[in-house]
Amino acid sequence: MGKIAVYPGSFDPVTNGHLDLVRRGLRLFDKVIVAIARNGTKDPLFTIEERLEMLQQSFNEMPGVQVDSFEGLLVDYVVKRQADAILRGLRAVSDFEYEFQMALMNRKLNKNVQTVFLVTGLRWIFISSSIIKEAARFGGDVRGMVPDIVCEKLKEKLGVP
Ligand code: PNS
After folding, report:
1. Euclidean distance between CA atoms 21 and 98, whole angstroms
2. In the predicted model, is pLDDT for residue 141 greater than 90?
3. Residue 15: what pLDDT?
4. Which single residue of 28, 46, 89, 120 has CA 20 to 30 Å from 5?
């Protein structure tokens, strides 16, 4: 069996930064499971089903990627999927503190689960799901920053032209 990584997140919604990170991850891992935390963000814009659909469409031409969701602790899900590591992206210094804390907590919860960080592509360094939602909410054009399906769904959801 090849090496497997779980790439967890809220993906509310998925961005081109996430796609780029998974592409990089596939150079290290044979399979990347992109997994939405069902108990993640408190006030998401999209439902889990909508997020799963956007992820599925965005990754349908990337072999080696599987889309899923999980409930409860990430480390338990990693064990359940027999994965070798958690994959996370680092954009800037501001991400570091939160990511460091989460990686150490996950290691404390299960010392066998490793976290691997990959640095986000420079093109996507300023992009986050939150800033995409903020721009789209006020009619900003987010084409080229998110997959086309996400552009459509954002317009539908926010009722912007
Ligand atoms: O994209 P996000 O919102 O930064 O992702 C955060 C996420 C979903 C990876 C994190 O909140 C998570 O792992 N949630 C599941 C519960 C858990 O195991 N938390 C970390 C240890 S307490």
Report:
1. 18
2. yes
3. 98
4. 46
